DNA sequence: TAATAAATTTGTAATCATTACAAAAGTGAA
DNA sequence: TTCACTTTTGTAATGATTACAAATTTATTA
């Protein structure tokens, strides 16, 4: 399915900025920040505003089309893959990596309804462990 | 064990601000923000600086004595309970609640070493679900 | 104890990600 | 084309966090 089709199916008008941003996230699974999305796309679309990137990732995230990753204090990252998987932050190089994970066996208090589930690990990645 | 003893055992000098902040976190399991810690303690210790609260929670967190919770984009929260448990953010009232969770069965890529593990859920809490 | 060195705390001023907001631009219907 | 509505944009706030240097406290040495 194209990005525009996915947006339309969620009643989000597939404007050019929205399609570009969603496309970018679908093609770059590096969990980019708003800044990285903006810098990359403003080459192709010089009129793009960073505010539009902020607006769009918030729109897509609340529609459940992308995920907001808050593994770092400094800034949010975004992920077009909404399938269940964990995120690993390397505190050496700052990279964020995916890993396979099952859902933990959780006992929520009665009456709680779940919207999103995230598993965040931090540590040192393969590459940074080598350089020691 | 007293807070001062725990700090000492980690080679952190148990100064008054450090003990007060750590004590506060041990007694208030509500996952307070820096602002909440500062506001509460500055009544008893008017000379306390917010910078000291920032410095201290960073110190305690990197020593592994407390946990930094980044479930929200806006600000970090802190938790003196380092036992394994999940955190649930109610997107209606903003409260953060603990819940029991096992470790998910995760397959990390080879060579990755783990320092911290977090399970974050969002949704609606018991109380907010009632008011609907 | 006094003097000195080291560690800690403090207040103020940056930094910087995010949001507010209103004007501008774009889109679609009559 | 005109009008209403949505989206985008740029600028100016906001607000959490950090940098930093001065002030204070604590520890050490003589």
Rg from Cα of chain A: 16 Å
Strand content of chain A: 15-25%
Quaternary organisation: homodimer
Please estimate the helix content of chain A.
25-40%
The biggest sheet of chain A, with number of strands, parallel, antiparallel or mixed sense and barrel status, is: 3 strands, mixed
Keywords:
homodimer, 132 residues, alpha+beta, 3-stranded mixed sheet, two-stranded antiparallel ribbon, 5 helices, DNA-binding
Can you describe what's shown?
The structure is a homodimer of 132-residue chains. Chain A contains five helices and six strands. Chain A is α+β, with helices and mostly antiparallel strands and 132 residues long. In chain A, β1 (67-69) and β2 (77-79) form a beta hairpin. In chain A, α2 crosses α4 (50-62) and α3 (34-44) crosses α4. Chain A is globular and about 40 Å long. At the A-B interface, β4, β5, β6 and α5 of A face β4, β5, β6 and α5 of B.
Outline the fold blueprint.
Two copies of one chain form a homodimer.
Chain A: H1 3-9, H2 16-27, H3 34-44, H4 50-62, E1 67-69, E2 77-79, E3 86-90, E4 96-101, E5 106-107, E6 113-124, H5 126-130
Parallel strand pairs in A: 3-6
Antiparallel strand pairs in A: 1-2, 3-4
Helix pairs in contact in A: 2-4, 3-4
The structure holds a DNA duplex (30 and 30 nucleotides).
Q: What's this model, at a glance?
A:
The structure is a homodimer of 132-residue chains. With 132 residues, chain A is α+β, with helices and mostly antiparallel strands. Chain A is built from 5 helices and 6 strands.
